[in-house]
Design a protein that fits this description.
Ribosomal Protein S5, domain 2; seven-stranded mixed sheet; globular
């Protein structure tokens, strides 16, 4: 027999001693990892959660537990509904007019969303967000930029350089948590930027600004205000020396979207990449170029990445990647030199080292190349991240071209996955890759047979099917028509 819910609650409440609802305990301390937020019962030199050294610090626990040690959740009647009876909400997006920025967000900024933007110091995070707010201000949107690291005078200097002065572009230099919350709640702005979440601190916590407890507390408070209001909010996050967002991993779970701003300081190119997006694709990118007057959008990244490609040089191959819905052509360069004493050196930039090791093993086994004692350097030019398996054929082609010191076709594009048996396997969105190659004037495509057979004819391209890696040498060095 099932008991009524109200009777169960009465029975449980009568069994709980009154002393549990307000239990005084002696003050105690715990040990918390400042890197991942894990709580430990004793100090350790190395955190068992994240594996970092010297990150465990001692923290005081509160002396009174104001909540009950055992409680039953009270649910309002009718709070549970079938999903078919829930009324949907229209997805209203605010477009900044910066197409690359809007593309990375999935089509624009969603109201009441919390977005986290991370990147290396000096990469251009503040510049990007100030330009986005300036574009919104020119569209008569009221925006607010909160800085916990710069003075209003410094923000004015950057705004002058970027040319984004407007009366409805509000700025606030503040790092006290309660003051920041009140301005977000009362400003009635469409978009708010908090730069950075590590610089905001709450006096109610005894830990320093930027600690795990402060970041978690500040983000939770901002999230609550944003979800109850109408503004979207960007949080700027610092990164560690390993390139990951500083603070607890729960920070990335709390926000709606996680963006990373990537690039090399020696290169003017910057890539805005979404790794999480509750309102759109999590694999879209936006491409920018850093100039004297801020970031300029790159509407055609394929031309940018191939603009300085050398002609008549071995070790170069062009591949067609897909980032979200956008096909991008990129150059893969390889340098195979040796023999070197002992085991050859392996260096990768922009390409997964595991994919390189796989391609080397396949070329040695199936083509009989002696690569074990060769120094091998592989680079995806221009800061591109060639992480998808579709780049396998281009990686193998670049390695083969450099090892044999023969020039591959300059107007040839290669894409396709290579299996451990040496077979060429089909990849997704082949039509988009072929169309992008045709638009940029390439004349020949080397792709898996399954993709070639399913491709639409035309475009003035010669489609060459490959079934096994053994065919690559004969196809790669053929004369282009």
């Amino acid at each position: 027999m099932r008991w009524p819910a109200e009777q169960v609650r009465r029975e449980l409440n009568s069994a709980i001693p009154p002393m549990i609802t307000e239990q005084k305990v002696k003050a105690e301390t715990v040990f918390v990892c400042t890197q991942c937020g894990r709580t430990l019962v004793k100090w350790m030199g190395r955190c068992p959660g994240c594996g970092e050294w010297n990150t465990v610090v001692e923290r005081d626990m509160p002396s009174v537990r104001s909540k009950a040690a055992l409680s039953l959740a009270q649910t309002e009647p009718g709070g549970v509904l079938p999903i078919t009876e829930i009324r949907g909400m229209p997805e209203a997006r605010l477009k900044t007019g910066m197409e690359e920025f809007d593309r990375a967000l999935g089509g624009g900024i969603v109201a009441r969303s919390l977005i986290l933007l991370g990147g290396d110091p000096g990469i251009g995070k503040s510049t990007l967000l100030m330009q986005a707010l300036g574009a919104l201000a020119r569209l008569n949107e009221r925006v607010l930029y909160i800085s916990g690291e710069e003075s209003p005078e410094q923000l004015k200097l950057r705004a002058d350089r970027l040319g984004i002065l407007a009366d409805n572009f509000l700025v606030l230099a503040e790092n006290r948590f309660e003051t920041v919350l009140s301005h977000i709640d009362e400003s009635q702005c469409s978009v708010v930027v908090v730069d950075s979440v590590q610089s905001i601190f709450s006096p109610s916590l005894d830990s320093a600004a930027g600690s795990v407890s402060q970041i978690r507390h500040v983000t939770a408070g901002i999230l609550d205000v944003v979800k109850r209001g109408a503004a979207a909010c960007f949080l700027v996050g610092h990164v560690t020396k390993d390139g990951v967002l500083a603070g607890p991993k729960v920070l990335e779970h709390m926000v709606d979207t996680v963006l990373s701003f990537e690039g090399e300081r020696s290169h003017p190119y910057r890539i805005l990449r979404a790794s999480k997006n509750r309102f759109g694709s999590s694999s879209e990118i936006g491409v920018f170029e850093m100039g004297d007057r801020g970031l300029q959008e790159v509407a055609n990244p394929s031309e940018l990445f191939l603009s300085e490609r050398p002609e008549g040089v071995s070790g170069s191959a062009v591949t067609a990647l897909v980032e979200g819905t956008r096909p991008i052509l990129a150059e893969i360069q390889a340098l195979v030199t040796g023999p070197a004493p002992g085991q050859g050196r392996r260096t990768c930039l922009g390409v997964d080292s595991q994919r390189l090791a796989l391609m080397i093993a396949v070329l040695e086994k199936k083509l009989g190349l002696a690569l074990a004692d060769q120094d091998i350097f592989l680079n995806a030019v221009g800061g591109v991240r060639a992480s998808e398996p579709a780049a396998d054929l281009a990686v193998a082609g670049a390695l083969l071209s450099s090892f044999m010191d023969r020039v591959a076709g300059s107007r040839t594009v290669l894409f396709g996955e290579v299996g451990l048996a040496g077979e060429a396997r089909r990849v997704s969105n082949a039509e988009g890759r072929i169309a992008e190659a045709a638009r940029l004037g390439f004349t020949r495509i080397i792709a898996p047979k399954a993709n070639v057979e399913a491709a639409a004819p035309g475009r003035g391209l010669k489609l060459v099917a490959i079934t096994h890696i053994k065919e690559l040498a004969s196809l790669l060095f053929q004369e282009e028509s």
